Every structure is written in structure tokens, then in C-alpha cells.
Amino acid sequence: MADNELIKTDFSSELSQRYLAYALSTITSRSLPDVRDGLKPVHRRLLFAMRQLKLDPGLAFKKSARVVGDVMGKFHPHGDAAIYDAMVRLAQEFAMRYRLVDGQGNFGNIDGDNAAAMRYTEARLTYVAQLLLDGIDEDAVDFRQTYDGEGEEPVILPAAFPNLLANGAQGIAVGMATSIPPHNVLELIDASLHLIKFPNATHAKMLDFIKGPDFPTGGVLIDAPDQLAEAYATGRGSFRLRAAWEVETERGGGWKIVVTAIPYQVQKARLIEKMAELMQAKKLPFIADILDESAEDIRLVIEPKSRRIDPGMVMENLFRLTDLEYRVSLNLNVLDANGTPGVLSIRDALLAWIDHQLVVLRRRTHHRLGKIAARLEVLGGYLIVFLNLDEVIAIIREEDHPKDKLMVRFSLTENQANAILDMRLRSLRKLEEMELRREQESLSEEQAKLSAMMESEDQQRTMIASNIKAMKAEFAKTEQRLTRIEPLPELDSDPADLLVEKEPITVVCSQNGWIRSMKGRLDETADIRFKEGDGPQFLLHADSTDRLIIGLENGRFFTLAADRLPGGRGFGEPLALMLDMPADQPIVAIMVAKSGPVLLASSSGHGFVTDMMQLVAQTKTGRQVMSVMDKARMVAATPLDGDMVALVGSNRKMLIIRGDEIPVMAKGRGVILQRHKDAWLADATSFVSEDGLSWTQSGGRTRTEKDIMPWMGKRGGAGKMVPVGFPKPPRFT
Fold first, then answer.
1. Is 218 among the domain residues?
2. How many structural domains are present in the chain?
3. In terms of domains, do 671 and 571 share one?
4. Contacts of residue 248, Cβ cutoff 8 Å, sequence gap at least 6
5. What is the pLDDT of residues 293-322, one digit of tens each?
6. Backbone torsions φ then ψ of 721, nearest 5 degrees
């Protein structure tokens, strides 16, 4: 094919292929760590280059620029800034639970200040990094050519340290990401020892050893055990991490709050700046001042305006409004031994590390057996020399080709002959012969033990367990858990009450979704004005400290604080501007958030019961609770106030069922409540059987039906026609 020949191809296909190649390169060669050593390529290359520079623990430091230059020139064809940034993070005590680089100089601080330039700082490896590299010269792992083909680099490190879970990892690739918090190595070791003995241990068993993440900056985890168990079993979840704090009392009964640890990856300077902004905005009315008295340890002093305030309530408000409480995500998305990305449970991640240790042990043992065999071969030749010393010397002195003669005369191998010819004269002592025989016996014994171990997986697992126990003994001398695990504190009142004065209000929402709050308790007869073409739809009584739950036809629920509602002087504001909710989705219900059963029903006739607090959304984007299929829509979201549930379809057939027939679910589609043919569910409500079923007739009059037996049935029935005078279209309110 000529160089200037054009090849016609489909642009979309070509673009897809090239983007896929780029995406795979990003995933496998940049962003996701390997489950075996927990490292990305840049970190692996950094440690290997530092080992080549003989930057072992206890030896002299070398300039960081020297390390970065070697990594960039030999292994990692990227910019020096990216390499140095990766190296800096490996040396930061507040970023790494177990540092891999021992830094000397300014490597940044928890305030968010950058490290000094690489020409000023120096570095060497740590003990943990040495564990990761241990055995790399003993054929423990595969090597591949470097990017320029002039050298070799390890594909993976031997990793005698469970680095993936101990130090964690973060990364964003194309179409996927990873987020793994750090853990305590002693807990990981105990879990690993159990898995070595019982590989089929359950996910729940892991929680007996691994109590939760352990961050280098300390803090307090407040998640419930069942949430922790689910996150570790699925490899996905999040953890609520709070700052650690204490109360210091002063003379005269005064007190102040001292924050002694802040959440992981939160910059202290930015945290204080945010708190100062909130004070200026008068959102922290009970705080007089915030002082940063930190030196090597964190010490943030919070002074209250009044000693009569409960310190716990003050901190709860700070947790809500600032990064003193931070949610750390878990997405255990890693590359497996075949380079395939996937999300693993914490048990499977440890099993993968153990399997890697088995592979490394076998390879190192095979390498050692080869060395022993070669040495025994040489020793055999040496011993022949001592048995036939005079003849060997004569052959060496008289023959033109002594190697060939020695090989023929004594049946030697070429290696043995070369070793004999390379012997020093001073080695030909009687004492040396005794030492050779002792060495031969020792090596033969070691060879037998290693050969037996290679044939028994049980012995291999025992050897790995022994190595891990030795590592545990080293860490147990100084290691302790930094992050406390405590239950969520129970408060007598809502912390939001500190910031908002509690007063009665009436929430008014129009048909077009304009919402406002009016002071006092108003009823439907009050003179409430709306925009032209708009009218009333929802009117409910609440307090200014309440939270409102708004449910849409698509089954999504949103939460809004009542104190954020606009006042009643105008027409209010559209809910679609206050929350990230679609403007074209009609509002089905507005309720005051409080614990209790709620009935959800869709036009397809499906429904279920859930607790109202399950509807509370933590973000402006809302929470999907009810799944609506095809063209169905949610038609009812109403508190379950009675023992009976009434359902009515668009075909004007009504069915009454017992409330306990409806299952309780957290979310989903639910079960069939009422079946319809060429119709759909129009409305649902609950009532007390003794009080009867009530509905609003045309003209605003209320009718109550005491005799409900004609419409009683089992869940999933079709029902019977509604009484005469039932509203059109069929609705209970």
C-alpha cells in the first residue's frame, strides 16, 4: 500500500474504536489500582525507581528531583509535575495511613498548602514500601519492557503488605471510578489469617475483625453496623465521618469546644474559612469565635456565646452546615489479576491479595530451589577436588585444555569444571572441606523442605500465615486505631431548632406548584390569593422547624425545610426553582416529615407501605422511592392513619382491604392492590373501620359511609361500583 493511499472508513466506527482504546488505557494504566498490590502504575514505578537508587530505609536521602527524573526518563513517560504530585502524596502523613515514602523537607500540610519544589525536598523508602518490594529480585513477579525498550519494569509488586485496603485509593477513569478508604493493618491481618484458614468465610465474619475504615487524620465513624456490613459485602457504600471533639471547662462554669481531629481529606484552612463565612451570614448565631491553635496536632477552639447552650447541640449544627462531618464513599473498583476492572467485596479483595501471596511464595521458592541446585552442583565439584587434590592440580598444570580433561576424568558438568578452575589456592584447606560439607548438608535439608512445601498447598498457606504473623508483630509494637467508631448520638430535640424559631405556619401550594408559608393556622375559608389562572391545591399546618416532603407523579420525593419557604405577602415561588425537580411533573402530595407509615399507590394498581422517614431526601435532587413502569404514575402518597385502605379506579369501582394486607417496603413498585380492566387506579386513602369511610362530594359536603361490607375484599380484587353521588372524577378528597 502506498504511503499516500487513502482508506475510507466509517467515521463513527473509527471514533468509537479510538475512544475505546483511550478509555481502556486510562482504566488499566492510570486510574484504577491493582487488587494485588493496591498501586497504580505511577506509584509502582516510583517505588521501583527508588529501590534502584538504593533509597532503602535507614540509608541516606536523595533529592526528590533525582527520583522524579529517573522515573520520567526510564519508566513513566509523563510530566514531572504529575510524578512529583504522586510522590508527595505517598509521603504525607495526613494522606497516607501507612506512608510509602519517607520525606525530608516541606511535603505540604493539612491546611492545603503545596509541597516545596522537588529540588528542595529529599526522600527515601519506608519499611512498608520495603515490604511491597521484598522478593522482587527473586523472580517473584513478571517484568516487561519499559516504554522505550531499553529496560524492564515490574508488572506488579510482590506486595507482602495488604496495601490496597490499608492505604486505600482514589481515581477517576473513563466511565468508572474508584474510592477506597484506608483501614487498620492489624485488623486486615487478623481477617487475612482467618481467610487463610477458612477461605469460604462469610462477609459477615469479616466484621469480627475489620471494624471499619481507619483514617490517618482520626475522626469518629457514626454509621450503623448494618450499613457497614452492606457496604463491605457489596463493595459500594459510604461512611459518615465526623470530627473528634471534646469540651474544656473554664473557671466560673464556662466552657469551650476543642476539635482535635478533622475528617479525612478535609483542608483545615478551607474548613475554618467556611465556618467564618457562616458566622458572617449569621447562620451560626450561638458561636462567638473560632480560633485555630493547631501546631503539630489539630486544635480548633470554638467559643460559644452562652454557657447555657448544650455543646452537643452546637456541634450537631456544625456537623450539618460544615465539613466537620464528611461522607467518605466506598467503591471498591479495582483491576483483578487478569487486568479486568470490577467491584469486589472486602473479603474478595483480601482473598485476591492472599492468592497473590501464594503465587509470589511459589515463584520465590522455585527461584530459591534453582539457586540451591546450582550451589549443590558446584559444591559437588569442590568436594571432588578435595578427594582428588593432587590429580586435579596435575591436570590443571599439565593439560592444555584442563576443563575438558577434568570433565572427562571425574564426570563433571561444565559448571563444576568452571567453578574448580576459578577456585582460589587459599581455599584448598582442610577446614574449607569441612565447611563445604556442612553447607552441602544444610542446603540439602533446605531443598527437601522447600520441595515438600511446593507439593502441599496447606504448607504454603502455613508459610504465608507465618510471614503475616511476623509482619503483625512488627506493627503491633507501635500501631493503634486512629478513628473511633461510635453510635450516632441521640438528641432530645432537632438541632435545626437552635437556628430557627419555632412558630406555627400554614403551607400553601398552588396548582402550578407555587409554594409559600403564612403565619398562624389558616383554614380553607381564609382569603388566600393566587395568580391569575392558578388556584389552591395543598394547604397544611406545620411549624417553622419542620421539614416538608414533596412527592411527584414519577415516584420521586423531595425534602424542603419549612423555614426556607417564601413568606405569604406575595404568591410564593415555584418549587421547581427551589429543588432540582422537573417542572412538568405534577405534585401528588405534600406532608410534614415525621415517623409513621405511609401508603404509596400508582395508577397501575400497585402499592406498598413505607415509613415516612424513608421518603426524606438528603440532596436537592430528591430520592426515588416508588418505581412506576411504562405510562403509570404515582396517584397517592398518604399517611396510613387507620386499619382499612380504600381504593377507587377510573372505572368507578371501589375496593376496601385491610391495611395489614399491604407489605412494608423501603422502595420499589409494590404489589397489586386493585386490578383494573381498561382502567387505572385513581385514588387511595386509609380510614378507621369504626369511623367509616368519608369522602368529599360536590359542593364541599362530606359524606361518611358506615356500612363498608359491600366493598370489602381481598388485596388484588376488582371491587364494586361506588355509591351514588360519589365525585367525578373518582377521588376521596
1. no
2. 4
3. yes
4. 255, 256, 257, 258
5. 988 889 999 998 888 788 888 888 899 889
6. -60, 145
